[in-house]
Amino acid sequence: MLFFSCDKDKTKEQPILKSHRITKSITYNNINVDVVIDKPALNEVDVLLVFHGTLLYDSNLMTAANTTLDKFKDILDRNDMMIVSVAYPQENVLLGDNIVQGEAALLWLKNEASQELGLTVKKIFLGGHSQGGYMVTRLNTMHQTNGVIANAPGPLNLIFRCELEENGQIQSSAECTKLKNTYGTTSNNPNAYFQRSLLNFTNGFKSDILFIQGLSDSPIQMYSWPKFKQDVLNCTSCQNRQFVEISGGYHGSLFKNITAKTEFNNFINSH
After folding, report:
1. What is the model's pLDDT at position 9?
2. Torsion from C-alpha of 240, 126, 117, 112, nearest 10 degrees
């Protein structure tokens, strides 16, 4: 009589891990936002949560989220991190009000992503470019993470910028136009503009933060950069703050300058 073993091949019982990229609509505290998730073939991951810059139309959100994800992935010197890019809205909200979508994405990542994605989230880092840098700097005053990287964060000073637009010295922007329609001019209601400026968020950083700024960025950015930097350095209620300034560098220095890329990776790997 022949007997056949019924034992299964143990190797076949193990799940096959694959890297993948998906778009997912997430909800936290009744706030909805779309994210793009780029996951390595691992069950335990450190995560880089990234934020794109300014857009005119929300129809371009997913393109911007994917492009920003790719830019950060290209400069990251490790392939074991999951990157989550947040498609936070801009078209129909006042600048700064979309912090609620950014916060929802971060809290979802902290509290629900592991269960929903079937993995273990370990360390969480924030990364942002331009208005995305504004977002992660503000989030650092709200919630603790393992570290934050902000490239050319702004707008730094909405009073200065929007006043130039009101005077016809520079082209009008959607951001300042919406603020003017809501609050009036910068001279009539300067405090409303200041409250939304990044100069108003230079204290209470809950995690170490790395700022990267090209010193040949736009005149509007550079006008307020020295004051922003000094205010941050003067903070007595902040975790460690590091500034990397790139001589001759422009708005996207993090993604183009070797020194900036190196400091970016050193920061993540040291935390």
Report:
1. 46
2. 60
pTM comes to 0.93
- Under 8 Å CB-to-CB from 41, ≥6 apart: which residues? 17, 18, 19
Residue ranges and CATH numbers for the domains of the chain are: 19-156+202-269 (3.40.50.1820), 158-196 (no CATH)
Beta bridge partners of 25: 34
Question: What contacts 24+ positions apart, CB below 8 Å, involve 20-28?
Answer: 23/62, 26/104, 26/105, 26/108, 26/112, 26/116, 27/104, 27/108, 28/104, 28/105, 28/107, 28/108, 28/111, 28/112
CA 252 – CA 202 distance, rounded (Å): 22
Question: pLDDT value at position 4?
Answer: 41
Tell me the three state secondary structure of residue 65: helix
What is the structure's pLDDT at 14?
A: 45
- By the 10 Å C-beta count (0-12 exposed, 13-18 middle, 19+ buried), 28 is classed as buried
First to last CA, the chain: 63
Q: For 156-204, what is each residue's pLDDT tens digit? A: 999 999 999 999 999 999 999 999 999 999 999 999 999 999 999 999 9
Pairwise CA distance, residues 225 & 120, whole Å: 38
* Tokens coding 141: 């005053």
| pLDDT digit string, tens, across residues 51-92 | 999 999 999 999 999 999 999 999 999 999 999 999 999 999
- Residue 204, sorted as left (phi over 0), alpha (psi -120 to 50) or beta, turns out to be left
